[in-house]
Structure formats: C-alpha cells, structure tokens
Amino acid sequence: MKKRAIALLTLLLAVLLAAVIYVLVSRKPPEEEPVSETVALMPFVPAKAVALSWRGEAGEYALEKTDDGWIWVDHPDCPLDPEKVSGLLTKLSYLTGEKTLMPQEGENYGLEPAAMEASVTLIDGKVLQLFLGDYSAYAGGYYAGSSERTDLVILPEEDAAPLETTEWDLLRYDSLPEAGTVTAVSLKNADADFSARWLEKGPESWYSPRDHWFMGEEPLSESAVEELLAGLTMSPFQRCVSYDRRDPLWEESGVLAPDAVRVELQSGKEGTGASVTLLFGSYVDYSCYAAVEGGQLLYLVNGALADKVIHLDPADYRSVELCRLEKEDVSTLEIRIGENSRRFDGVPEEAEPFFSALTELTTLRIARGETGRGEQLELTLTLTTGRAVQIRFALYGTQETLAQRDGDAFLLDRMEADAVIELAETLLRGE
Known about the structure:
Blueprint: H1 2-26, E1 35-40, E2 49-56, E3 59-66, E4 69-72, H2 82-93, E5 96-101, E6 116-122, E7 127-136, E8 141-146, E9 152-156, E10 182-188, E11 193-198, E12 213-215, E13 218-219, H3 222-233, E14 240-242, H4 249-253, E15 261-267, E16 275-284, E17 287-292, E18 298-302, H5 303-310, E19 330-337, E20 340-345, H6 352-359, E21 363-366, E22 373-383, E23 388-396, E24 400-405, E25 408-413, H7 414-428
Antiparallel strand pairs: 1-5, 2-3, 2-6, 3-4, 5-9, 6-7, 7-8, 8-9, 10-11, 10-15, 11-12, 12-13, 14-18, 15-16, 16-17, 17-18, 19-20, 19-22, 21-25, 22-23, 23-24, 24-25
C-alpha cells in the first residue's frame, strides 16, 4: 500500500512538472522564434538628407548640411570629409534585418531607452529614426526598431557598425602627394640640412644614366630616398589626436615651435610644382607629434618614421654603388691586368657574367681619400653617352678590397671582388 502511494505521488509530481514546463515554454517571448524575412529598417535617399544625429557607446553626435556642405553642430570648424559622411548615410539607408518579430507586451528588448539610436532628417522635413536594443545571442543580432515599422527586426551585429562611428572616422585628412610624384625633398633638423632633387638627366659631371636623385651634383641612393618618401607619404598621417587649433595640445606637441623639424615635399618637373610642408614635434611614448603646415589636424605618427626625419644623416643617403650601369649603357669595355688587356664592343655574351658580378658588388663603406696598394685590375667603360669611366681594384688588407672610381674610393667585400677579378682573368685568357 505504501509503495502504491509513493508511486502515485511520483506520478502526480511528474504531471505537475510537465505542466509547469508547458506553461513556461508557451510563455517564451516570441523573439526566440522570429520569422525569417529581409526588411529595410530605415530606407531613404542619402542625397535628400539634411541632418543626421546618432548616439552610440562612443558618445552623441550631430551633423547638419549647409550651403557649404556638412558640418559638426558642436564643432563647425572641424574639417569633415564629404565622401565619408555620404558613405555613413548610405550605410544607414541600406540597413536591413533578416528576421522580424512582433513585440510582446511586457518585454523591453533593451529599447526603453535604446542602447544606440540614429535620426535622419530629410529635405522635406520627414524624420526617420532607428533604435537598437539588447543583443540576442539566440537570434544572432540586436533587437532593432524603426519609426517606419511596428514590428522589431534582428539587425546582425556587424551591421551596427555605423552607429559606432565617431568624429575621428569622418575627418578629412590632409592630402599628401604620392611618393612617385615627389621630385624634390628638403629637410632641416638640429644636425643636418638635407636637400635632394630628382633629375631626368643627371649633372654633366656624373657618369651613370641610371641615377636620378642628387644632392647638388652628388648622386644619392635611389632606394634610400624612395624608402624615406614612401614612409612620409603612404598614410602616416592617419592617427589624428586634435582637430581644433585652439586645443592646448598643439602648443604642447612642439609642431609650432621654431625648432620643429620641417620637411618640404615638392612635385612637378624637377621640384617646381606644388609643395607641402610636414612638421615634426616632440615624442610621446613610441610616437611623435606631426602636422601639415597650414592644416587643422594634429597627428601622432610612428616613432620609427620620426627617427628617420628628426635624426636624418645625409651620409646615409649617399650612393654606395661602385658601378650603377646596365649593359645597354656601355659602348666599349676594356679590361687590363698588368700588361694583358682586352677590349669589347659593348658587353657581349661572354662578358655578361663578369659585368653582372661587377654591378652587383657590395660596398662596405665609402673610403674617400684612401689609396690602395698592388693594383690588380683596371677597367675602362666607355658609355653610349661618350663618357669614359675608369675603375681600379687594389689589394687592401685581408678582408677588404679597395676600388677606385674617378675621385671616389670604395671598400668592397674581398670575396666578391676576388670573384670579379677571376672573371676578368678568364676573359683575358680568352676562355
């Protein structure tokens, strides 16, 4: 009898539990089972918008369209990029959700007040509003409401990005020339005064038609100059920290100080075109303050880039190539070791290995004024321009070889230089 009572009680408890579960399930908010449907949240024509405001986790923002374009309501002097504003409006106009549901009485969904919201005023005075509430992991997005709809829409998480836009995302950054268009660069820092120009044809005193960057009549390393220009022009000024010249940070940054490092970049034929001047101030952590002269924005740029400018040494940009030529530049080639010599018209196939090794020699350092001992190899290259270039190799210690070209001397890697000498000996033997 007792066992029967226990069994009956167990059965009653099971029935009661099932009833409770049924009630709870039946009362589950309908958002857990939204209807799949792609809908537009706030459709409008971006070109007809005259005001835009939004509030997100980063703050509240408001823009107005005037006869002169879009402005910040709170910062009318802040330079806005009209294309970026247009892009933001386009993103808002195309916001869509893929699931809809009807709000259930008593459910808030995080919309009162909304976690994020946006408002667009059109030219005819109509105001469109968008509200974002709680994030639903089950539905895979935010609960979103709109002044244009009575139901709710699930907005995918990635599509909520426009409401996280800040003033920094809409700034019109200073325009810098492309590295390939710069034909002159001048820089003055505490230790050096550096000036370089790109010439289609080098000075008469220079032999190589392959060199185009010069400091006065001295050739510069093309790769070194181009690396500097790439660093200065390939989006280094993208981290803005102030857009108001009245901000005390401008004075603290050092970019307005008389001793700020100035870099002038010029475009056009031989540096006669438009120019822009970059200013570099003080360091902060691993960055450096910088600005464009006459601009409204203050930036933080990479400290490594700033180092190249603030501590630039012109000697680092000198050309260190012993023989910067291509075989097409050579009209005649004469090789001499002691009493043996041989002359070639141009650079024939048999001389190509020798010429290739010559032009690829690694220069350890420039050695102006040094003289060599025990001359080993003498070269005379007559160029298609009519210019004759003489290069002499001499022994210099056990690890280095001294090469002289006109008035310049170069210390070369001994093994590489020996390989060139051996190839020259092979050509002299006619092998």
